[in-house]
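ARCHIVE CARD
SHELF: 3
SLOT: left
DATA:
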Amino acid sequence: MYRQNYIDIPSSVVQMVLVFFGKLMAAKLPSEPVKVPGTTWSFSMNPGPFNIKKHVLLSILANSGSDSPYSILIMVVRKIFYKKYLNFLIGLLMALAIQVLGYGFAGIFMKFLVYNPYMWYPLTLLDVSFYSALSVVCWFWKHSVIAQLIGSGRNGFGIGSFTFDWSAISGYIGNPIAYPLSTIVNTSVGFILFLYIICPIAYWTNSNNARHFPFNSLDLFDKNGQHYNISNIINENDLTFNQKGYESYSKLYISVVYLFCTGFGFAAVTATLTHFIVFHGRETWRQFKNAYDSGNSTREDVHNRLMKKYNHVPQWWFYAIIFSVIGFGMFGCIKFEKQLQLPYWGVLLACLLVMIFLLPIGVVQATTGQNIEFNFISEMLIGYIYPGKPIANLVFKAVSNSAMSHALYFMYELKIGHYMKIPPKSMFVAQLTGGIISAVVNFCTSWWLISTVENICDPKNLPKGSPWTCPTQHTVYDNSIIWGTIGPRRVFFPEGMYSKLFYFLFIGVIPPLLVWAMSKYFPEKKWIKSINVPNIFGGVLFLLAAGAVNYWSWITVGVLFNVIIYNKYKDWWTKYNYVLANGLDLGIAFQFLLTSATLQINDIYGVNWWGLDVGDHCPLAQCPTAPGVSVEGCPTH
C-alpha cells in the first residue's frame, strides 16, 4: 500500500502454497490423538486427507484480512505528514476493532447479499475455478507542456501511452480478464466521458482557474499555483484549523481531474441508491419481510438447498461483535480525545451510515464485481458536522469505510464458502481469526516500515527508483486537509468556489431512472439492463491514484479476452481464461516477493537507466498552462 506501483498478492498465491504444505502435512504428521494435559480433551494433528474444503477454509483464514485496514492510514498520516505522536497500543486496538466490525455487519446482511442466488460476485470465479508506462508523444516533444499533457499516461490524456506491466494493468482497477464484459463496457464509457469530454472542457475553458494548476494531480495548490503550505492554516499544537492564517494566506485549489473525481464520487453514491431502489427494491423488501421466516428468506437454488444441512451462525453472534466494537470505539474516543479528535457520537454516526449504504453498494458489487467508493459521503458528512479537525475526519472515515469494505469482502468470502459448501460456523471462526491476525500483522508491519525506511512517502528525497512514494497515503492526507482541516463549507458549499460540484449528487439520480424506464418500455432489449450507472460513475475514481495508461491497457486486455478470444476461441476461453488471469497475478506476486527479499531490502531498485524512473517521462504534464503562472521546473507561458 506504500508503493508507487500497487502490488496485490492474490489469494491464488496462498492457495498454491497451501496445496503443497497441506498435502505434505497430511502425508507426514502423525494421526494419533494428542491429549491436553489435565483435561479429557484431545485432538489430532492429522485428522484426515487434505481435501478441497480444508483447502478453501485455510485460504479464507489466510485472506480474510488481506486488505490493509483504513485505520492504519490514520497512524501513517498523523506520524509522517502531520508529524504528531500516536500511542502504539490505541492504534493497534483501533485496527483490531475496526477489522472485526465489518464482520458483524456482514453477518446481518448475509440473507440479502450471500444467500440470494442473483448476488453472484463475478470475481469469485477466480477462486472457484508503474510505472513502466511509456508515452511516444513525450519522446518527440520533450519541451512542450501541451504535447506532454496530451501524451502523459499518468498526469494527462494518455494519447500514445502504453504499458506491458501487469501490475499497472490490474493493480488499481482489478484483473480485466476476470470482469464480465458489461463491467468493462460501463467502465470504459465512464472513463471516456470523464477524461476526454468533461475534464477537457472544464480545463480549456479555465473553469475555476483550472489552467493555473496541473490537469491531473493529487497535490493541493494556493492561488499562485504553488503547492499549498498547510502550516499556514493549521495550529501545530493541536492540529486544528487556523482561521486567521487561512484568511491571510489563500483558498485551496485542486486539479480539474481531482475535482471531477470528487463529483463523480458523489454521483456514484446517489446513483447506487437509485439503482438499488428501482432495480432491486421490490425483491429486497420481499426478502426483508420474510427474512426470519424459515425457508422463505431467499429464493431457493441448489446451493441454498445443500447448505441447509449445516447449522447456521446465530445472528446474536454478529450483533455481539457490533455492539462490543461500538462500545470500545466510544471509550477510545473519550479516553484518547486529544489524539483521535473524534467525539464518541461519531462512532455511532459512522455505523449508522454503514447500515444505510451497505445493502445498495453490496448489490452493485455482487452483480458487477466493482466496488463503489463510499468515502466521499462519509468525509463530507463529518466535515460539515465537525469541521477543523483533520484526525477526527480520518477516524470517522476509518470506522465507516473499513466497516463497509471489510463487510463487503467478508460477504465475498462467505459466497465462496456458500459455493464450496463450507459449514457456516467454520467460516465464522476462520474469517474472524484471519481478520484479527491480519490486523495485528498489518499494523505492526506498517509501524515498522515508517520507522525504518528513510524518507518514506517523500518522493523528492527518496533514492531514484524507490517504490515507497505512498500515492494512497498522499491522497488520504490531502483529503484530510480538504474535508477535515479546512472543511467542505469553505472549499465547496456554500462558501467555496467549487460549490456547484454538489450538483453531482442530483445528477447521479437521473440516469438510473432513465435506464429503468427504458428497460420497462423496451423489455425485448436485454442489453439495456446491462447499463450500470453506478459502475459508469464509480469506475473512473481510480484515476486519482492511477492514470490514463492504466485504463487504456485495462480496457484493451479486457476487450481482447472477453470479446475477441471469447467469440473466436470459446472452448479455449472456457478452459483457460480464469487460469490465465490467476497465472498473471501469480507471476507479478512472486516477482514482487523475490525482488523485495533479494534486492529492494538492500536498497537496490534496478539498473541505472531512464526506464528506472517511476514517472512516465512526461514531467511537463504537471505544469500549468495559464499565461503568467510561474512554477519551478515549468516554462512560463
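SLOT: right
DATA:
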Amino acid sequence: MMRKKIIQLTSGRGPAECNFVVTNVFKKFSEACTKSEIKFDIIEREMDKDFHQLSSVIIELEGNDLNTFLKTWLGAILWIGKSPYRKFHQRKNWFIGCFELEIPKENSINPNEIIYQTMRSSGNGGQNVNKVNSAVRAIHQPSGISVVSMDSRSQHQNKKIATTRLLLKLQGFETNKLKDLVQKKWNNQTSIARGNPVKIFRGDKFSE
C-alpha cells in the first residue's frame, strides 16, 4: 500500500552557508527518492534573497516503506566543507534539519467547498508550458483563501499539489506559523542531534 508523508528540509534560520547545504542536500534527497521509486512533489519552497539558495523546502512523498527510507534522513544533517561565500571563514561544519510534518486531513475540509481554475503557467519551463492551461488555482470558497501551483507541466499534477498546499494553509500551516513550528523543533533537537547527525556529507560534491 502506497503511503504519504510530508517532510521539510530547513536551514533553521542559519547563515547563507546552511541554505547552500539545504539546496545541495535536496538534490541528493531527490536522487535517493528516485532510486527508491518514491514519488515526490515540492509543496512549498523558500529562497534566500542574496544567493538564491533554498532556505526551506516542503516535500510530499508517496511510496512504500517510507519509514525505513526516512530513518537515515530525519534529524540533523551535517555538511563538512569550506564556505562557498566567505573564503577565509574557519568554520567547516554546517548543519541543517530534516523534519516530518503532520499530513493535513482531507476529510476535515468539504471538497465541494474547493473550486479550481486553470491558467497558463509562467516562468521556467519553455514555450510548451505557456501554450496550455497547465497551472491550477485552488480556492476555498468559505474563507477566500487560494493557492496556485504551476510546478508541473501536468494539469492533473498541479491540481494535486495545489490541493495539498491549500489543505496545509487551511489547517494553520501558514508560512509564519510553519517557521515557528520548525524553529521550535530545531531548538528542541539541535543540541542533541548536532552531536549525532543522521547523515554526513563532505566536500563540494556532497559525498557521503
